[in-house]
Amino acid sequence: xxxxxxxxxxxxxxxxxxxxxxxxxxxxxxxxxxxxxxxxxxxxxxxxxxxxxxxxxxxxxxxxxxxxxxxxxxxxxxxxxxxxxxxxxxxxxxxxxxxxxxxxxxxxxxxxxxxxxxxxxxxxxxxxxxxxxxxxxxxxxxxxxxxxxxxxxxxxxxxxxxxxxxxxx
Length: 169
Fold this sequence. Notes:
Elements (H helix, E strand, L loop, with lengths): L8 H7 L7 E5 L5 H8 L3 E6 L2 H4 L7 E4 L14 E7 L7 H6 L1 E12 L20 H5 L4 E10 L4 E9 L4
């Protein structure tokens, strides 16, 4: 199941840069590997996934919300977070709303599959693969602290990932 195991090294690498604990969102959280990591650092975590079985595995202290954000309304209108974490998930229609949930001075940590992934397996459909530079374009007006468009191994996969801070505060 998505979300089991250790947190992404991208998420943990940028963890030292995050603001003092506050509110965090783990979107498409799966079994909660990043939710656990954020909770251990003192964050109040809202974790969203469409799979209720995945949410059953969330640790105590997390607020789990079952929602299909691709077919239904955004389940937390007006909510704001100091940190938003998204890994292995892409739904382009949601991206503007997601960026607006990040507080001024808050962080977006995003890692997902990119074009070229189809060589190694799923996802392979273009609508689920980031185009070259797409995350950079998404965060063009933000302070980009880290960005990679790379091939990772174990398992081999093509990804883009960004650590970006919303201006302000």
